[in-house]
Amino acid sequence: MRLILSLTATLTLGCAAQRVTDPPPAPIRLAPPAEDGVSVQRVDLGRGLVVDATSDITSKGNGTLNILNQSLFIYDAHDEGDVYEHGRLNVAFTDLDDDGYRDMVITGVVLYTYETGDDVIADREAVTWVYTYEPDANGFALRYTNASFDLADGPEREPYD
Amino acid sequence: MDGLSTPLRIWTVGAAACLLLAAASATDDSDGLVVFAGYEAPRYQQHDALIIRLVKHFNADKVAYAGADEKQAADIPDLSPVLVKAWIIQESGGGDARSRAAWEMDPAQVNVPGDWSDVKEHVGLARPSKRNTPTLENNLRAAIMFLARKGFGRSGQPASRRPDGYFDSWATALERYNGRIVICTNDRPYCDNYARRILVRMNDPDRHAPIELPRPVR
Predict the structure, then answer these.
(1) Which residue of chain B has the CA closest to A114?
(2) Tens digits of per-residue pLDDT, B45-78?
(3) What are all long-range contacts of A68-73, with beta carbons under 8 Å and residues at least 24 apart?
(4) At a CB cut-off of 8 Å and minimum separation 6, what does B5 contact?
(5) CA distance A124 to chain B (A)
(6) N or C, which end of chain B has less CB nearby within 10 Å?
(7) Which residues fall within 8 angstroms of residue A50, CB to CB, at 6 or more apart?
């Protein structure tokens, strides 16, 4: 009887210890689509949850990333006074709150240009958004922003002279 | 053309000269425009009459189309309908479903939700919720207006908002209209390849100028 109890306790503790010490899912990055138009990538959010990340890029290099409940303007390669450096923002998925699910971190630099002239940058803005994955809602919730604009709309400033 | 590199300045001046020549020999006959090699299918000619009519309106009323004052408008060279035809083929002449749908209703792809900018309200557009609305004529007119305003600056705002602004060239306007700055596999910016290809098609209609451009390096 003592042995059975001991084994049960050991196994229970062992399982709990295993759960606690499970390494967090490794960070992953969203690769830029190879083509304009609509492309779908599969993103492993952890705990067996794999979701579609759909990029829809116009012929002018603008576009959105649609993932779960979010539609985010992360592609802007068309310089009409503002443009993302390298034409896009960087999207990474990493577990920030130790719940076993990868959260979403978006970073990049916006270049604000003058109306005319080549390669003249009037201003730069480093931007960051942090979204956590919320299992109950099966969606992402915005938790942190460091940007002058809403990522659903993209940058829009009054044109420079 | 402040800030342009010397080769680009030379190219831009040359392109402007070619545009003037093309404007002088715009049409093959009274009904249609020149047929470009590789684009002989009837669908590529279906907008010819509308292009001719809208370009005629543009050349007669540059103030309204460019949102320019009289002095600014006087410096805009006449627009060639052949340029417009070569341009919309570049935008929507492809064989994929999205291009074919655009060709029917928004061949210059000026009214795409993902490319919205508030200054487009000044060319008769309202923020669209889907592609290829509202009408072909409205979209092509708006596209010509927007292209002309791109000749004055990147944003496409009415030219008169910058009283000191001046029209650079149609070649520059094309670069800004599809102003992707990403570098392509031929080490040129996408916008440069885009404008050059349109001008090659326009200036040498008997030589096939493919729509496909060097790919961006991602």
Answers:
(1) B154
(2) 999 999 999 999 999 999 999 999 999 999 999 9
(3) A68/A138, A68/A139, A68/A140, A69/A137, A69/A138, A69/A139, A69/A140, A70/A104, A70/A131, A70/A139, A70/A140, A71/A152, A72/A106, A72/A129, A72/A151, A72/A152, A73/A151, A73/A152, A73/A153, A73/A154
(4) A118
(5) 16
(6) C
(7) A42, A43, A44
Which residue is it, tokens 């005319």? A116
Residue type, B91: E
Q: Is B114 exposed, middle or buried (0-12, 13-18, 19+ CB in 10 A)?
A: buried
Residue A158 has pLDDT above 60, yes or no: yes
Six-digit token string for A44: 């492993």
What does residue A116 show for φ and ψ, rounded to 5 degrees? -130, 175
Of B98, B112, B181, the CB nearest to A37: B98
**55-74 of B, contacting A, C-beta below 8 A:** none
- How far is residue A54 CA from its own chain's centroid? 12
Q: What is the ipTM of this complex?
A: 0.80
Within 8 A of B8 by CB-CB distance, chain A residues are 118
| Interacting residues of B129 by C-beta distance below 8 A, sequence separation 6+ | B113
Please answer whether residues A58 and A23 qualify as being in contact, where contact means their C-beta atoms are separated by less than 8 angstroms. no
**Residues of chain B contacting A34 with CB distance shorter than 8 Å:** 218
Half-sphere exposure of residue A122: CA atoms within 13 angstroms, side-chain side: 16
pLDDT of the residue at B14: 52
Give the containing element (helix H, strand E) for A113: strand A103-113
Chain B contact for A153, CB < 8 A?
A: no
Q: pLDDT (tens digit, 9 = 90+) per residue, A1-51?
A: 454 444 444 444 444 444 556 788 999 999 999 888 999 999 999 999 999
Tell me the β-bridge partners of A38. A56
CA distance A121 to B193: 22
pLDDT at B76: 98
Selecting from A32, A57, A113 the residue whose C-beta is nearest the C-beta of B154 gives A113
